[in-house]
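Lecture 7 notes: from sequence to structure.

We start with a single chain of 120 residues. Read the sequence below before looking at the structure.
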Amino acid sequence: DLFDKATPSASGSAALALARLARKTGDGALAREAREAVEEVSWLMVRSPHGTESWFLALEELLAFERERGEARPADDVLGAARAAAGHAILPAPPGNVVCEDGVCGPAPASPVRNRDEEG
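Now the structure, written as tokens:
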């Protein structure tokens, strides 16, 4: 199953393990395998960010690997490819929809709403 439930997705966990191993060893081939797995389910990540947290953790680990090697790409490359491949109305998630930090992914905090009286 690709979705995380009470137990994380086995496939998402495997992608995360590959990404972590790639980062620890510097093995680009492992990183490519992990990235290909994440790209395969990126359409699902776009549609159901709250059911694919393990996949976002794998993506976070891959982005860290790429940053460390000087190959950083925007996270939206993966999700943007999913939107283009779908060829139909998959709307981009608003920026900050899901935040991954220190190995934990979750919904982004809500922006504070300011009252007009407070402006100024």
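The helical segments are 10-25, 28-40, 42-47, 53-68, 76-86. Keep this in mind for problem set 3.
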